[in-house]
Design a protein that fits this description.
Helices cover 28% and strands 37% of the residues. A 5-stranded mixed β-sheet has the order 6-4-1-3-7. The protein is α+β, with helices and mostly antiparallel strands. The radius of gyration is 28 Å and the shape is elongated. The protein folds into 2 domains: 30 residues; 94 residues, RNA Polymerase Alpha Subunit, Chain A, domain 2 (Beta Complex), CATH 2.170.120.
């Protein structure tokens, strides 16, 4: 009886380790991914208007090109189901800029808590600030 355990012990131990490794691999692949477990969904909002924000520049005369962007947002299903286009805000910060022509500025996105920006198309807009008389 003892012979069946001791004979070829190295091969038996190797086989047991391989079986455990295969079992762990199959188990890990069968589990849902983190995105599926959290029910992460994505929404795309087109034609989100870009606003110019500045503390010291008159932004009424500022020209932005393009004037709207497409924003892809992700988050938990509960957050995304309640998120609508009016809660997605795109803006460029023009604080401390002088009179320039076609200066590219990064578009920043403001979202409610729980939502995350995935992509912004285009990521920059051209800003034209007229010279002060």
């Amino acid at each position: 009886m003892r012979d069946w355990l001791i004979k070829d012990f190295h091969w038996k131990a190797f086989s047991l380790l391989m079986a455990v490794g295969i079992w762990l691999t199959v188990r890990r692949e069968a589990e849902p991914s983190a995105a599926q477990a959290l029910n992460i969904t994505e929404n795309t909002y087109g034609n989100v208007p870009v606003l110019a924000i500045s503390a010291n520049t008159n932004v009424r005369a500022v020209q932005l090109e393009p004037q709207s962007v497409k924003v892809m947002v992700s988050g938990p299903s509960e957050t995304m189901d309640n998120l609508n286009a009016s809660q997605v805000h795109a803006f460029v910060n023009l604080t401390d800029l002088g009179p320039v022509q076609n200066l590219p500025q990064d578009v920043e996105i403001s979202l409610p808590p729980g939502a995350t920006v995935v992509d912004v198309e285009p990521p920059q807009v051209a800003v034209t600030i007229p010279k002060q008389p």
